[in-house]
Design brief:
Blueprint (H helix, E strand, L loop, with lengths): L2 H9 L14 E7 L4 E5 L6 E8 L8 E7 L2 E6 L4 E5 L5 E6 L10 E7 L2 E6 L10 E6 L4 E7 L4 E7 L2 E6 L5 E4 L5 E6 L5 E8 L5 E7 L9 E5 L5 E4 L10 E4 L5 E5 L2 E6 L4 E7 L2 E8 L17 H12 L15 H13 L3
Antiparallel strand pairs: 1-2, 1-24, 2-3, 4-5, 5-6, 6-7, 8-9, 9-10, 10-11, 12-13, 13-14, 14-15, 16-17, 17-18, 18-19, 20-21, 21-22, 22-23
């Protein structure tokens, strides 16, 4: 586990030298476009862990929108800057796809997600030689555009679901089904049910949460986060989300629902039916970041167990100036690295 993730995990709970705890191996990441940042939350109860997990301001971000984990990287789309920025788990910029240049291939981008062996980026403009309404296919290894799937209206997101992929739109009120090759399989949610659906997420019950940004005249349903069953039937609205213009939603581990809109990141308590803002701003899309739990910093000798030999291995690395022994990540070797390692050892490994 790298030093920055370790530091974030150490702030997520109380460290007891005599009692072992578990280092969280997942974080819930949310894009905030008014403050140009990615914030990190506890995926179980939505507790704010780091309000500035990634700072997008140095990149001149305008309207960061979508986010996805792509292998050991984090990809964030910028709707107005017409690009996707790639970061490591430390928040360091690795590269950019697209941009406002001839041949950039992206314009007015929305969501981004891993579909099969590709990354799909959702595009609606034609500047920078972009294809208009289309799914832009990107190779995650080379981080280059490899093709487009043309669509007849403005797309927003794709959710892998039951062996297929659900694609949402703002130019129509339907959700369509695609296979991994981009072939249309049919309709999941018919026209006129919900309007301007942005991000979708699957619940633990196998239903779909759909963030409908606008109200629907045909069905009379308001904007809100709506739950849909596997057959495309609308089951009901998540309490506290009606007429709020939501953009994304995610079921937390405790059963409540985190969602975003122009007021920030909010959580609906399903027992009380009330929603509360947990981070002000302009909330956009949500993604789950899964860390490599097999890479446990405290298991310094890599034998799969936490023993005195891990302390000896750390001490030897420290004595030789091995960068791995810079536990607190400050670029120097001090007593604080020993304290950092001691804390990591006390927390333990999954």
């Amino acid at each position: 586990m790298n030093s920055r993730i370790l530091a974030i995990c150490l702030t997520a709970g109380t460290i007891a030298a005599t009692a072992a705890a578990q280092v969280p191996d997942q974080l819930l990441l949310v894009v905030d476009s008014s403050n140009n940042r990615v914030a990190a939350f506890d995926p179980f109860d939505g507790t704010l862990i780091d309000p500035l997990f990634i700072d997008l301001n140095p990149l001149g971000a305008t309207t960061p929108k979508g986010i996805a984990q792509v292998g050991d990287e984090i990809w964030v789309s910028d709707q107005v800057q017409d690009r996707v920025d790639r970061f490591d788990f430390e928040g360091n910029l690795l590269g950019t796809i697209g941009g406002q240049v001839p041949g950039g291939g992206l314009d007015n981008v929305r969501g981004v997600n891993v579909i099969g062996d590709e990354v799909w980026v959702f595009n609606a403009g034609t500047n920078n030689d972009a294809p208009g309404n289309a799914i832009v296919r990107v190779d995650p290894v080379s981080a280059t555009i490899i093709g487009n799937i043309l669509l007849d209206t403005s797309p927003w997101f794709a959710l892998p679901y039951n062996g297929e992929n659900l694609v949402s739109y703002s130019g129509t009120t339907r959700i369509e089904r695609f296979d991994d090759a981009g072939s249309l399989l049919g309709v999941f949610l018919g026209t006129g049910q919900l309007n301007f659906i942005q991000q979708m997420a699957e619940t633990s019950a196998g239903t779909v949460l759909a963030a409908a940004f606008s109200s629907t005249t045909a069905s009379g349903r308001s904007a809100g986060v709506w739950e849909i069953d596997a057959n495309g039937n609308v089951l009901g609205i998540v309490p506290g989300t009606a007429a709020t213009g939501p953009r994304a939603a995610w079921e937390l581990g405790n059963g409540n629902v985190m969602w975003t809109n122009g007021s920030g990141v909010q959580i609906s308590d399903l027992s009380s039916g009330l929603a509360s803002v947990v981070l002000p701003g302009s909330g956009q899309f949500i993604a789950l970041l899964t860390l490599d739990s097999a890479d446990c910093y405290a298991d310094f000798d890599g034998d799969g167990e936490l023993t005195i030999f891990d302390f000896l291995a750390f001490q030897n690395a420290f004595a030789t100036g091995d960068p791995q022994a810079d536990c607190d990540g400050d670029g120097s070797f001090t007593l604080f690295d020993f304290l950092c390692f001691q804390n990591a050892f006390a927390i333990g490994c999954d």
